[in-house]
Amino acid sequence: MHFQCVHQSIDTSSSTGKLTLAILGAVAEFENDIRRERQRAGIQKAKANGVYKGRRAGIDAKRVRELAVRGMSVGAIASELGCHRQSIYRLTRDVDSGDEHSQ
């Protein structure tokens, strides 16, 4: 099976086309590796500065429980806490199943 580019003169049925495609692939892989290295370096620098700590907890599980005990609906709790209803459903499901943690 051969690859032939319509817009450029790359045809893998010839040796030159195979070489060109291999070079383009190697350059793309090289650029991807450089980007990944820069990303890792940035994360390490941020961690060293105490800035990179992962995602912050957005919802307080205790507060959700308090509001639910008061009889508030899921929609009302979500509105009160400024989040989506699905987040409240997910959190209450986790609390009910014993996998209690703040999100």
How many β-strand stretches? 0
Uncertain runs with pLDDT below 50, 5 residues or more? none
Percent of residues in β-strands: under 5%
- Based on CA atoms alone, the radius of gyration comes out at 26 Å
Query: What is the H-and-E element order?
Result: HHHH
Largest sheet: none
How far apart are the first and last residues' alpha carbons, in Å? 50 Å
**Envelope shape:** elongated
Q: What level of helicity do the residues show?
A: 55-70%
- Tell me the count of domains: 2
Whole-number average pLDDT? Answer: 84
Note the total helix count: 4
Structural class: mainly alpha
Describe the structure.
The structure is a single chain. The protein has 103 residues and is mainly alpha-helical. It folds into two domains: 54 residues; 36 residues. Helix content is 61%, strand content 0%. It has four helices and no strands. α3 packs across α4. The protein is elongated and about 75 Å long. The model has no long low-confidence stretch (mean pLDDT 84).
What's the short version?
The protein is an all-alpha fold and 103 residues long. α3 packs across α4 (85-96). The chain contains four helices and no strands.
